[in-house]
Amino acid sequence: MYNFCLPTNAEIHDSEFDAKPMVLMIGQYSTGKTTFIRHLVGGDYPSMHIGPEPTTDRFTALIHGHDETEEDSDGEDDDDDDDQTNSNTNSSSTPDDEFSTRSPHTKTVLTKAWKKDGRNKSSGKTILGNSLTVMPELPFSTLATFGSGFLSHFVGSICPAPLLEHVTLIDTPGVLSGEKQRLSRSYDFAKASRWFADRSDLILLLFDAHKLDISDELKDVIETIRPHNDNKIRCVLNKADGVTREQLVRVYGSLMWSMGKIFHSPEVVRVYTGSYWDEPLVHDDFETMFESDEWLLINELVNLPKSCAERKVNEVVKRIRIIKVHVCILTYLKNHMPRWFGKKKMQEALIEDLEQIFDIVRIENNLSSGDFPDVNDFANCLREVEDFSSFVAADKKTLRLLDDLILIHIPKIMKGTSGISDPNNPNRKKTALKHRSKTPKKGTDTTMDSSMTEEELNGLLIKVRHT
Question: Among 167, 286, 300, 304, which has the minimal tally of Cβ within 10 Å of its Cβ?
């Protein structure tokens, strides 16, 4: 019950704070998720399998690293590689270079630092799921709660791709349709996706321009990962070069309409359109738009580490606000339970009046309605509790500690770390006063600006804000 309100449904471990930003890929089978990742990392990677049928049958975490067994042999051939690279540079490039990229903006990011004639020949190694949960440098320890049914379908792919120095990519099995989604897997796919979504910095929903139908199973997965994650979700309309100009306009409009129905919001989700593989475009009518969207997507991926710390602090602050609301609700329910008789009847009455209870708790504790959970979901969770008297009531001191975290302690940690100019910086004040000073008119008093104390200046700012 106490984990119900948490955005990640579990404790945040130190390894999760220290981890690189994660990018989660979700989509139906054969929408090009694995090919998309292959395009981003510049070539093949361990455990990769691409085909028209549902090929990816497990969650794959692409982690930056090197295979120690290959580093020694690579070191012996460095000189030969350099000579070969120079000769390849001087020679004309072949038109069938399968790892060349169309966009000059993303070429350095996608193909930088590859040796062995510039191609990635799936160097690296794989690590199985149970081993990933016990590695202290990786943020996957809490995945052990899903059991062996999931961990046997979870693997880590160690790859030296340059992009993985900035982010960790998560490839997922394709969302199946019908009973196959529920019966053919030994774990809860939606809950596993929710675990990764809650800890990801960016969630990419991939769609195929040739088959845009969104199944009920995919809709359920999106609705499962949505809570607390709306601002992370982006859409990728893949294989867009395979349709004509008129068809692409219709497909794009249909995708926006479908996303509007799922998200129940007038604001549209950001959509990146393109063909994310290394073959020439079939229809190049929108080539400029495809390259622009690809560059914007790569730029967003590379810049994720810059805001990673702020996002994690944002998650902590969000947790504190939600936990405070949660604790206040449970305290109210516990205080209104009888001591001896009639507990069951009182619990049913409290659940029935839960919406009114939310309003009372909000007014009594000066809380925001936006921090409260969904009434129906919370009521369903309460029905599974046998006795509300078992809840631990929180006193004013505990609530004050939560407020102090937001108002005092976290601001001290964040001060000066976000790159925002400090208004209390004395050098900045002197510069500002210098720029504000102008040639005075004849007969005016020029002593005010130079003699104004900090207290007087703050008082003046307060008056301005109030007016």
Answer: 300
